[in-house]
Task: structure prediction
Amino acid sequence: MEEAIEIGKRFLTDLLKAIGVSPSINGVLKEGNLYFELRGDKKGILIGKYGRTLDALQMLLNRMIQKEVKRPIRVILDVDEYRKRRTETLTKMAFRLGEKAKRSGKPLTIGPFSAHDRRVIHMALKEDPSLRTESIGEGDTKKITIIPKR
Result:
């Protein structure tokens, strides 16, 4: 696994240097996944709108590491705990909109969201027995419908 961490650090360093960003890179193995945390300035460039740039960097990093180590491994890339903050924001929003759907008694459609964001919302509302959620649409334009149970 140390090899995979070194490959990831080298790839990220070269890629980020090319776009003029030089954050500190920390890589650790946690729960069978490789976590890379970037810290430094120019966070907005690395995160992008709604984390889209971060998702793209994570996908590239994942492919690069898997190609080199020749086995599947899950790679998670984060910038100054953005993913944690985003999860908290989405969870609060899901609860708020779930209550709104229950009050109105009508389905509520929100989005579009990335696959990760949709999963956070589905998981947040999964425990509420008076609601169910569905993903609708195609690809990156998938939305979520929050449906109150009768």
